[in-house]
Amino acid sequence: MIYREAGDFKTSYAADAQAFPIAFDRNAYYALLAVAFLVVPFVINDYWSNAILLPFLIWSIAAIGLNVLTGYCGQVSLGTGAFMAVGAFASFKLMTAFPGLNILFVVLLAGGITAAVGILFGLPSLRIKGFYLAVATLAAQFFLVWLFNKVPWFTNYSATGQINAPVRTVFGQAVTGAAATAAAKYLFCLVIVVAVAIVAKNLTRGRIGRSWMAIRDMDIAAEIIGVNPLVAKLSAFAVSSFFVGIAGALYFAVYFGAVEVTDAFGIRVSFLVLFMIIIGGLGSILGSFLGAGFMVLMPIALKNVMVGGFGWPTDLAAHVEIMLVGLLIMGFLIVEPHGLAQLWRLAKEKLRLWPFPH
Amino acid sequence: MRLTAWAALTAATILGAAPALADLNFPQLSYRTGPYAAGGIPFADGYADYLTLLNERDGGIGGVLTRSPECETAYDTTRGVECYEQIRGDSPLVLQPLSTGITYQLIPRVTEDKIPLHTMGYGRTSAADGTTFEWVFNYPGTYWDAASIIVSYLRDENEGSLEGKKIALVYHNSAYGKEPIRTLEELSKQYGFTLTTIAVDHPGQEQKSQWLQIRRERPDYVLMWGWGVMNQVAITEAANIGFPMENFIGVWWSGAEPDVLPAGMGADGYKSINFTGVGTDYPFYADLREHVLDAGKGAGDGSSVGTVQYNRGIYAALLAAEAARTAQEIHGVADITPEQMRDGMEALNLDEARLAELGMEGFGPAVQVTCANHRGPAVGQMQQWDAEAKQWVQLTDWIAADDSVIQPLIAEDAAAFRAETGMEPRVCPAS
User: Fold this and answer.
1) How far is A342 from chain B, CA to nearest CA, in Å?
2) What distance in Å separates the CA atoms of residue A343 and residue B5, rounded to the nearest whole number?
């Protein structure tokens, strides 16, 4: 009744091709953006920023990045952690080598460097597919982490292998370092998340995205209808690594401030992001956000309820939390194997008919 | 689902933000789960039990009760940061993360938020320089001191010369394990031994290739910077390849009962350094039993009482409580703030007489902290595992670290930190 297409007339091709063709969706999207930009920065405190919203936003970028590669182009990757490490170390080297460079450009350049590395490690995808490609990207994961551990140049010869982000500002407001306010860090990440999501959404709706999906669905057929697999696969690796690199740079510079490569970017991270997109929904930008929210926020929410709410001992709560998150993942995947995004799609179908189903 | 989660989260945040009660808050970033729980649980229990003892026997510190809420980190940096954000609003007097990785995260944050951080025998070694790290303390010693103490012990064993000896370092491949390398390199130049470093990745459950390398290279001594499950595996592997255990020496985080017990008789003779006493043969244990353990108020199930990490937890709580007492005396108020607590930590003077008064003679080193020196006495003692009796035997008295090697390294690293962050050192009054 409220959620409907009827009566919403499009008078131009541009209006017909917009990302949210249904007025209700569109308004909800604008309202969400307005709240995120105009309300949240004024009410946010350090706990909400550093423990909840920053990780959610940054993991969302990483999930969008992997979703481009795995969800849209069908190339399974287990190297996300390593590509995030490339972004983090690139931003560290850029920040220390060019102290005057604005942090926004540092983050974008770090993404660019990661894209180049991603193309390099994407080359095997031209010959191998599926599980075999997953193993090749797994090699990237271990090789890159080993490299950052082994070559002291990457850490500026730090004795412990830790890298620390120096203070950088945007419009006079510190966004990295301990002195940065919760709102500044949040807004900085939010701007980048929104930009990444819009770029990703439009890429996947356009010619490039269609060529990715053609490769994903059947690469031989795609080649026959004129999709160049080399261009499609490598561009997917490049775009995906660009986003993942941005996520890595933000994860290091804005969220943590100091990282150590095996701890922060190990194989655990690659699996975490892969689970995010599987649970959120492969081939869906919204799914990336839902998956990141589920995997990052659910453990914190459960912990706060069990320890803060019920006053349980912390070790019991930690064990119950692991079991509950596992059960929820299984539960969701049994109910809807295509992820949370598919649940939302089904809900929209039902809403269109509500309250008068056939 | 997400809605309910958010609602629950909001509720929990509101609950967590309740006004602080008039008591002394010593929160713990503990880990009772994960691959490092074997060390985390007894330490957390010891810390909590000593604070409970103060509450039950003395009515707190200076008449104010203490409390020690816990936040589970599982030795994971992300969770550690989340815990810190949750704790910091609750006026924590001192934070003890018991993790070098989390320490590196917290150093800039506590400096900004003005909360003291006590990394007892771990963390960033150059935090010993109080002029650079105002809010961070690592008394009674650092990793570099540990490396120096072990090497001077080995020199004594070899009639004063390590010329031509081969020493291997098996280390946890993280900031923690990498810390001593710089000092050991310096010492190897000075004393003419060759150093081989062998990394073990987190969590350290698989070490076959590392011990194969040791078997091939046949070092005279193996040192270990390990933690959690890595210790057990390393000691078992060393026993399997028949490495002489008396030549295998662990840092103070690699020398507790859970580390050696899995290897059984094979671990007999394994050595480690330590900065706290072992066993329960101290007068204060009578009070602890009466007021806490037998009264059913212990934090754990009691199985770890008297073990290395449990005693270390007690010693950590003792240092925190004594610093709080000092702060109360300095400022003349009972309900101290974190900033006043820092002054107390910096003026801490826990001498032998006070230790004896507390029934803790020989339980740990006497500690004196100053504005410039945050690392205290920098001493350790060597202990050896007796697998027959299942207990640690103290081999030596306190051995001091070689300041002529350590001090320049600390000064260098602190200067590098100041250059990185563009800060000026604080001026300390001449003492």
Assistant:
1) 15
2) 17
A295-311 mean pLDDT: 89
pTM reported for the whole predicted model:
0.90
| CATH 3.40.50.2300 residue window(s) in chain B | 22-142+278-379+409-421, 143-276+381-403
Asked whether the beta carbons of B49 and B93 are under 8 A apart, the reply is no
Nearest to B108 among A257, A301, A319 (CB): A257
B241's tokens: 């390849």
ipTM surpassing 0.90, yes or no? no
Q: Per-residue pLDDT tens for B93-108?
A: 999 999 988 999 899 8
Query: Does residue A92 belong to the interface with chain B, where contact is any CB pair within 8 Å?
Result: no
Q: Please tell me the distance in Å from A38's CA to the nearest CA on chain B.
A: 20
From chain B, pick out residues whose CB is under 8 angstroms from the CB of A298: 5
Helix (H) or strand (E) segment spanning residue B24: strand B24-25
Tens-digit pLDDT string for chain B (431 aa): 444 555 555 544 444 444 445 689 999 999 999 889 999 999 999 999 999 999 999 999 999 999 999 999 989 988 999 999 999 988 999 999 999 889 998 998 999 999 999 999 999 999 999 999 999 999 999 999 999 999 999 999 999 899 999 999 999 998 899 989 989 999 999 999 999 999 998 888 999 999 999 999 999 999 999 999 999 999 999 999 999 999 999 999 999 999 999 999 999 999 999 999 888 999 999 999 999 999 999 998 888 999 999 999 999 999 999 999 999 999 999 999 999 999 999 999 999 999 999 999 989 999 999 999 999 999 999 999 999 999 999 999 999 999 999 999 999 999 988 887 788 899 988 65
Write out chain B residues lying below 8 Å of A161, CB-based. Answer: 174-175, 178
**CB contact A300 to B (< 8 Å):** yes
Q: Over the Cα atoms of chain A, what is R_g?
A: 21
**Residues A1-38 pLDDT 10s:** 678 878 888 899 988 888 888 888 899 999 999 999 99
Structure tokens at B402: 């070689």
Q: Tokens 């409970």 appear where?
A: B52
Q: Can you tell me the distance from the alpha carbon of B180 to that of B191, in angstroms, rounded to the nearest whole number?
A: 16
Q: Does B9 contact A256 at a Cβ distance shorter than 8 Å?
A: no
Candidates 3.10.20.90, 3.40.50.2300, 3.40.190.10, 3.40.50.300; correct CATH number of B22-142+278-379+409-421? 3.40.50.2300
Answer for the pair A61, A107: CB distance below 8 angstroms, yes or no. Answer: no
CB neighbour class for B418 (10 Å; exposed up to 12, middle 13-18, buried from 19): middle
CATH number for the segment(s) B143-276+381-403:
3.40.50.2300
The tokens for A241 are: 């690594």
Residue B301 contacts by C-beta under 8 Å, 6 or more apart in sequence? none
CB pairs under 8 A between A and B: 129
Determine whether the interchain pair A260/B104 forms a contact, defined as Cβ–Cβ distance below 8 Å.
yes
Among B33, B109, B178, whose Cβ lies nearest the Cβ of A319?
Answer: B33
A178 touches chain B (CB under 8 A): yes
Partner residue facing A179 (CB), from B12, B112, B178:
B112
Q: How far apart are CA B363 and CA B384, in angstroms?
A: 17
Q: How far apart are CA B75 and CA B78, in angstroms?
A: 9
Residue with tokens 């309820």: A305
Instruction: Sort out which chain A residues have CB atoms less than 8 A from B174's CB and list them.
Output: 161, 260, 262-263
In what helix (H) or strand (E) does residue A154 lie, and over which residues does it extend? none
Asked if B175 and A160 come within 8 Å (Cβ–Cβ), the reply is yes
Residues 6+ away with beta carbon under 8 Å from B278: B306, B307, B308, B311, B383, B391, B392, B394
What are residue B106's phi and psi, to 5 degrees? -85, -25
Pairing status of strand A258-260 against strand A162-164: antiparallel
- The CB-side HSE value for B141 (13 A sphere, CA atoms) comes to 30
